[in-house]
Design goal:
The protein is mainly α and 135 residues long. The chain is built from 7 helices and no strands. Helix 1 (3-18) runs antiparallel to helix 2 (22-36) and helix 5 crosses helix 6 (94-114).
Length: 135
Amino acid sequence: MPQSERGVVAEELQEVFVARRRGTAESLAQEFVERYRDRFKRAVEVFAQGLGEALTYLDFPGVHQRHIKSTNVLEWLIREVKRRTRVVGVFPGEGSLVNLATVVMLRATEDWAFRRYLDMGPLWAAEEKPTKIAT
């Protein structure tokens, strides 16, 4: 895709991922595919193939969606491991590197255990509702 068109295409693509309902997102995605299929065939094919997985976060309650679709927590954890390993510089062996990374991740896990990142009530309520009656 030419650099000159990336901004416009990115704005339209962002509309798909800002939608709050799966049906709306899928219809916007279909419009996107139809609009750009002829001009950017390969890019649209890749987009269409991964759309189902990319919209998985919309299957969860609305209060969870912004946390699920973001990788901010994972990116923070990786940056923290890098920051802590840079301080040491050279490790005597691979085991000591693994130990330090494990300690950093365990400490982060302890912090998250005491902080409420997601309220699980809406998710549990959604699980208790029957979705389909078996026939």
